[in-house]
Amino acid sequence: MFAEARITGSLSLSTVAVFIRRRANVLLLSVICCLPAQVCAGHPGIIKLEDAHTFRIDSSDFLDAQFAIELSSGAEEAVQNSVPLLFELQVQVVEAHTWLWDSVVIEITERRLLQYHALSESYQVKDLNAGTQGNYRRLDDALRAAGKISNLLLTDQSLDRGPTYSIRLRGSLDVESLPTPVQLIAYISSDWSMVSKWYKWQLVR
Known about the structure:
This protein is of the alpha+beta class and 205 residues long.
């Protein structure tokens, strides 16, 4: 028979929890130290808007846009080691007010997941909104696909035609979605801070 282990007053549950957390932190730091040096430092990544325009079909407004994505050396090294990167392309329709702050009336976040598959030696980009995916031999082509918005429905006839509306657009790398060891690096390294500025222009209806 096995003797039942009991935690006595000299070893409280809180003490055990602290011990476990410390051991976990040591393990994570060990993993970080084993990662290639490029993951921790190097040139910064860049996300910027190359082109964007809206168009109307049957009284509905649509958006086409293309972001240029340049990975930091750390992010590129992570991709080559099959770490998935999640990019978020945020789109907002903003209503202008004369006496109050402008308000966001429509907000859409397009999500693109980029991952390298060593077996097929290809880069896969998943459109998490549409449920589609594409495979690319070159990283540059995969990044172009990750930064592309095509025929995105913004508004329909239900949007009031009276007020003035603007489009706001921004691209970013979702650090929260990274595996924990890489996430810790991203928090302490500015090279991983890949967020574009907000781009804004008036919606012509």
